[in-house]
Design a protein that fits this description.
This protein is of the alpha/beta class. The protein is built from eleven helices and 17 strands. The strands form four sheets. The protein has a six-stranded mixed beta sheet, with helices on both faces. It has a six-stranded mixed beta sheet with strand order 16-15-7-8-9-17, sandwiched between helices. Strands 11-10-12 form a three-stranded mixed beta sheet. Helix 5 crosses helix 9 and helix 7 crosses helix 11.
């Protein structure tokens, strides 16, 4: 949060600095009363040992992330892994169909068992010398929340798409209390509530937009009259699923691709893989960057088709752990076009509903895409409206979970935080743009890329 010059000059944020010895504090130009409390200074570790061990769980459709906050309150220790429910389908529709076929209990048990195993691994080293109580907050889309809680999902699979519950819920994992974030609608869930909460979007200026580009692609816009939201129905391509070369944002996944004289230069998550071999696959951010580069070099045309020399095999950029060639194929590009069309159309139509100029937007790009994506390297794809400001904010779900856990230091403050979440979820207006006039026409015309 501070520039390198400020840090070199000895400046620090007082709210994030921990005394480890005798300290003199000078207060300048303060008109309000200042209260300083005396306490025994016994070192940073003792100071940090108060309260509880906080864990946030981002229950994504494709990727699950567990995180513990560091000293600054931001996610520090993390674990990410593919959602075990991918065996029932890559998207929520497939999983709703599986639940309707009598597999809800199986999915519920499988998900819980995997979460408990990963939780045990996360805590293995932390709890060696730490007996503080543990608090967990979890957020996911409405379908994933229902499966995690074991709720009836039948109302989510057909019109009028009525959830079993959208309220804040309490449950346990391995006897540890878990607060589950509330949802907004059948298609805008607790993960978006967490994103809004983490970015404090409710207090942002009109024209601020949160684009969570995961499997479902939700978008929230702050207008003069409050928050409006929509699900873009992007499909799993933006998380790497349904792509021949795709994977979630896990260890060994390619998160970024640039071309130097058509030679792929890769950014890989969490590991030091030599060259372009032994990869897990490419996640959505890397695929979008590669599409942008292939548009720049003319290998992909504006209509999404490859030039003839690449039409059959696509564009290869590496090999996976089994030695299989990883390539972006024509079918992969078509999947990206469908996602791009849904997201860009939804964003523009939300602006129309809110009476805002798309070019004046200030977009916070979140989700797995917002972690690895470099907004300036996907402009040709047209998935994000051309606007004044685009910032990749990382995992906004974890930001919201960390904020909630930080505010829940006792039963009273937790009650206040839970109330704030409920009021926030209830204040968002959801627009079903797919049923709106002109959506299909705009969607079809937006499938082409921009050069």
């Amino acid at each position: 949060m501070l520039s390198s010059d400020n840090i070199a000059g000895g400046k620090r944020l007082a709210c994030q600095a921990y005394p480890i010895g005798e300290v003199t504090v000078e207060i300048h130009d303060v008109t309000a009363p200042v209260i300083l409390s005396d306490f025994e200074l016994e070192g940073n570790e003792t100071f940090m040992s108060s309260g509880s061990i906080n864990i946030g769980i981002d229950l994504g459709t494709t990727t699950v992330v567990m995180a513990m906050p560091g000293p600054d309150g931001h996610p520090s220790v993390t674990r990410s892994f593919l959602n075990p429910l991918v065996r029932f389908g890559a998207d929520v529709v497939s999983r709703l169909e599986a639940a309707a076929d009598g597999k809800l209990a199986e999915m519920h048990d499988l998900l819980r068992e995997r979460l408990e195993d990963e939780l045990q691994t996360l805590l293995r080293d932390v709890r060696k010398d730490d007996d503080r109580p543990i608090s967990i907050a979890l957020a996911g889309n409405t379908v994933m929340t229902h499966i995690f809680m074991g709720w009836d999902t039948s109302g989510l699979g057909e019109y009028p798409f009525k959830p079993y519950s959208l309220s804040v819920s309490q449950t346990e994992l391995q006897g540890i209390p878990v607060t589950v974030f509330p949802g907004i609608s059948a298609f805008v869930g607790g993960d978006i509530v967490a994103g809004i909460y983490g970015l404090d979007l409710i207090n942002a200026g009109a024209g601020s937009m949160l684009m969570d580009l995961g499997t479902n692609g939700e978008i929230v816009l702050k207008t003069e009259n409050g928050l409006i939201a929509s699900s873009a129905s992007a499909g799993p391509a933006l998380e790497g699923a349904h792509l021949s070369c795709g994977t979630g944002c896990v260890e060994g996944a390619v998160t970024g691709i640039t071309l130097e004289n058509l030679r792929p230069i890769l950014t890989v998550a969490g590991s030091k893989i030599p060259g372009n071999k032994g990869l897990a696959g490419a996640c959505g951010s890397a695929v979008l960057e590669l599409v942008d580069e292939l548009l720049r070099t003319g290998i992909i045309k504006p209509d999404g088709s490859f030039i003839e020399s690449y039409a059959d095999e696509g564009f290869a950029f590496g090999t996976d752990r089994s030695g299989r060639v990883l390539a972006l194929t024509q079918a992969d590009v078509r999947e990206i076009q469908l996602a791009k069309g849904a997201v860009s159309t939804a964003a523009l139509m939300l602006c129309e509903k809110g009476g805002l100029d798309p070019q004046a937007l200030r977009i916070s790009l979140a989700g797995g895409m917002g972690t690895g994506l470099r907004p300036d390297r996907i402009k040709r794809t047209g998935i994000i409206p051309s606007c004044a400001s685009v910032t990749a904010v990382g995992n906004s779900v974890l930001k919201g979970l960390m904020r909630f856990l930080g505010e829940s230091i006792n039963s009273e403050t937790k009650s206040t935080a839970v109330k704030a979440l409920s009021e926030l979820a209830g204040s968002v207006t959801v627009l079903d743009l797919a049923l709106g006039e002109g959506f299909q026409e705009r969607f079809l015309t937006s499938l082409n890329f921009i050069l």
